[in-house]
Design brief:
Length: 227
């Protein structure tokens, strides 16, 4: 299910390299240079009343010889209203309720909006890509790189309480010129690596709250998971 994957993360077994990265993060748990970049990303995103973007999502596991790529799009308004389309699923949130519609079987699952305190910090919410560093993470600046033809600043993030997370590292690539998110890589403890690339990003689009109410009549089967 996409609910378990969107901006949730994962990857490689602990190596000597990852141990060295963790040690550096512990020595300088909140690198000022990294914080400056993340603050700029968050502050700019906070000015967006709404946005929409296409994205590319890749799951890779080298040990299992797996590499799968899917494309989708996301539309967002405020902090908790979103429409996410990927892998034949449409996920809609009005900030209170989350509808997950599987198009090929016309099945609809209805759930309460997860609490931010739940495992992995409600990474299902697309807005968290811009602000998640503020709670529960250490971070360090890795330097500059070229990603998808853009000059980016690379920041690595590590959960403060790794035993409670399914992932061990998040890599955020922020475009140097305009302080916008280019891509994010989430490495999990099970050997999976998830890469998310944003494309065709448009901010402050014209959209109303009504767009984030799912029409339940589209479904042939409804599974209500709410308490």
């Amino acid at each position: 299910m996409i609910r378990n994957n969107w901006i949730v993360a994962l990857a490689l077994l602990v190596s000597s390299a990852s141990f060295a990265q963790k040690t550096q993060s512990e020595l300088n748990p909140k690198d000022p240079k990294a914080k400056e970049i993340l603050d700029a990303l968050s502050n700019k995103a906070s000015t967006f009343k709404s946005f929409k973007a296409d994205f590319e999502y890749t799951l890779e596991n080298k040990a299992e010889n797996i590499k799968e790529t899917q494309k989708g799009n996301v539309t967002m308004m405020g902090k908790d209203k979103y429409i996410l389309n990927v892998a034949g699923q449409e996920v809609v949130s009005n900030g209170v309720t989350v509808w997950t519609f599987i198009d090929d079987v016309k099945e609809l699952q209805i759930a309460n909006m997860p609490e931010e305190s739940e495992e992995d910090g409600n990474m299902m919410n697309p807005a968290n890509a811009f602000h998640m560093y503020k709670t529960g993470f250490n971070y360090m600046y890795e330097g500059k790189a070229m990603v998808d033809g853009k000059s980016v600043d690379v920041v690595k993030m590590f959960p403060i309480n790794p035993d409670k997370k399914r992932f061990h590292t998040i890599i955020v690539n922020v475009e140097t010129a305009n302080k916008e998110l280019v891509s994010m890589i989430v490495k999990s403890k099970d050997g999976n690596m998830y890469t998310y690339r944003l494309k065709n990003f448009q901010s402050n689009i014209n959209i109303t709250p009504a767009a984030f109410e799912f029409d339940e009549s589209r479904a042939d089967e409804i599974i209500d998971l709410r308490d």
